[in-house]
């Protein structure tokens, strides 16, 4: 889809990409902390609006809630790490509820194996790189979200991959407390990996909902 078509037919997606890109470029500028915080939250907030505008089902409303909580987490984490983590924890619980409502009928053994791996490895690696038991507790919900996404009926290489990218972005955040404390890589990679994951999740779920019920908006 060209940029013009994206603006005309998917304005909320275009707005989400624009907000996320501007934030990434402008985050080191002297433009005022409040404006940067609002701009950071605008990306996922636009994805929430996209979900609500493209489908009228309960699943789309739940997706909107997930993205709205993520937007809140994006903003709060700039003020307090614990507050931001709490908002993301709530978003993971909402995401698990959505994925469990839409489980795949006959998952393959390889899918089950990866599901278990995500469920176990996510909190374990989070604890190893951060050395913080509170981070490991949060990562239980993070891993549960990714595991449920991989077992859902939504496309694995859109929604499942998006959930895995979310996990990777959080691992990079946690690694800032430990092995990558002096590395510039987390600062460069966290935001694009995280937002790409959220974008894949939102678009993959909406497209699946519209394919199964095209009469909805």
What keyword list fits this structure?
globular, 9 helices, mainly alpha, 217 residues
Helical run tally:
9
SSE sequence, one letter per element: HHHHHHHHH
Weakly predicted, low-confidence segments: none
Sheet having the most strands: none
> What class, by secondary structure content?
mainly alpha
Shape: globular
Please state roughly what percent of the residues sit in beta strands, choosing from under 5%, 5-15%, 15-25%, 25-35%, 35-45% or over 45%.
under 5%
User: How many structural domains does the protein architecture include?
Assistant: 1
Instruction: Please give the radius of gyration in angstroms.
Output: 17 Å
Overall helicity:
over 70%
The first-to-last residue Cα distance is 20 Å
The total count of strands amounts to: 0
Assembly classification: single chain
């Amino acid at each position: 889809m060209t940029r013009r078509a994206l603006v005309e037919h998917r304005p909320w997606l275009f707005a989400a990409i624009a907000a996320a890109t501007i934030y990434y470029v402008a985050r080191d500028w002297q433009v005022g902390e409040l404006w940067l915080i609002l701009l950071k939250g605008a990306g996922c907030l636009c994805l929430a609006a996209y979900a609500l505008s493209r489908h009228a089902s309960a699943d789309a409303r739940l997706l909107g809630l997930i993205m709205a909580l993520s937007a809140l987490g994006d903003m709060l984490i700039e003020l307090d790490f614990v507050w931001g983590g709490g908002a993301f924890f709530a978003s993971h619980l909402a995401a698990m509820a959505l994925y469990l409502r839409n489980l795949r009928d006959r998952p393959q053994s390889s899918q089950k194996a990866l599901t278990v791996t995500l469920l176990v490895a996510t909190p374990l690696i989070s604890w190893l790189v951060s050395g913080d038991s509170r981070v490991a507790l949060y990562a239980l919900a993070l891993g549960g979200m990714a595991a449920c996404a991989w077992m859902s009926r939504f496309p694995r290489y859109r929604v499942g991959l998006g959930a895995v990218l979310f996990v990777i972005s959080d691992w990079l955040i946690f690694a800032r407390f430990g092995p990558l404390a002096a590395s510039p890589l987390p600062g460069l990679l966290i935001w694009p990996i995280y937002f790409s994951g959220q974008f894949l999740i939102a678009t993959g779920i909406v497209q699946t909902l519209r394919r199964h019920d095209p009469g909805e908006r």
